[in-house]
Amino acid sequence: MMNYSSTRSDPPETPDTAAAIRAESLNVVRGPRQVLRDLEFTVPRGQITGLLGPSGCGKTTLMRAIVGTQAKVTGTLDVLGRPAGHPTLRTRIGYVTQAPSVYDDLTIRQNLDYFAAILDPGHTAADRRHENVTRAIADVDLTSHTDALAGNLSGGQRSRVSLAVALLGTPELLVLDEPTVGLDPVLRRDLWNLFHDIAASRGATLLISSHVMDEAERCHRLLLMREGQILADDTPDALRTRTGSETVEAAFLHLVDEAVAAAARAKETTR
Ligand SMILES: Nc1ncnc2c1ncn2[C@@H]1O[C@H](COP(=O)(O)OP(=O)(O)OP(=O)(O)O)[C@@H](O)[C@H]1O
């Protein structure tokens, strides 16, 4: 995690028009390996940015750095105008991990009531909490299962309970790690519609990881990753045009081939 010994000397927060996330010379080491290498990118506010790349390329590590839970992060990483991990960011960011974090022995409503009580405590907030919980359950289309035990839900339903928890505090930035993995096509489409609603109606910024390239087409912008580096930071249209490809998947493969060829040339010249 990045270090914050004092908030007294914090620089003033950057204006809302600035990027939601800005990284420069960002490096992360995990165990003996350098997992992220010299990343430089920005994520604009109010849009959906897809973080795509093969398994093991560093997507989760980057998300953990952004939400402030990753150790050994160096370089610049600003989130909503503050350095990543800053205490004031805790209530402004919703993070959904790959493994759903729900209590199996509680119902869906009890799970959300529990997290709502942490976010918005006190007797006087009871009505507001009830409303927020009901809305978050409806947002993820689980109203008909409100009183079902989380332990009896399918994997996709449990993921949606986790997403509902992240939506409780109406966060400005939602960081979602592979939220559609294992879901059927109808649910995937519905969730992507929900993500677009959240960005459009609340002006929220969403960073969504996936290794399913067809989901890239649903994003406003893309960060394509490979082996701990950013291969491209662009819109799906611009990527297809730039590489002369029909799909983002073909564009990604084109960029991988280019990177491999460039690395081989560099090796050749150093011999
Ligand atoms: N706790 C850890 N200690 C050491 N290395 C780790 C640790 N966790 C992950 N790594 C390594 O860091 C690299 C990036 O992992 P990460 O989970 O960020 O990838 P990912 O792109 O999210 O993969 P996936 O799509 O499979 O979830 C991998 O090579 C992985 O082996």
UniProtKB/TrEMBL annotation:
SMART domains: AAA (SM00382). Keywords: ATP-binding, Nucleotide-binding. This is ABC transporter ATP-binding protein. Transmembrane segments: none annotated. Residues 21-252 form the ABC transporter domain. CDD domains: ABC_DR_subfamily_A (cd03230). It comes from the Bacteria. GO terms for molecular function: ATP binding. It comes from Streptomyces lanatus. Coiled coil: none annotated.
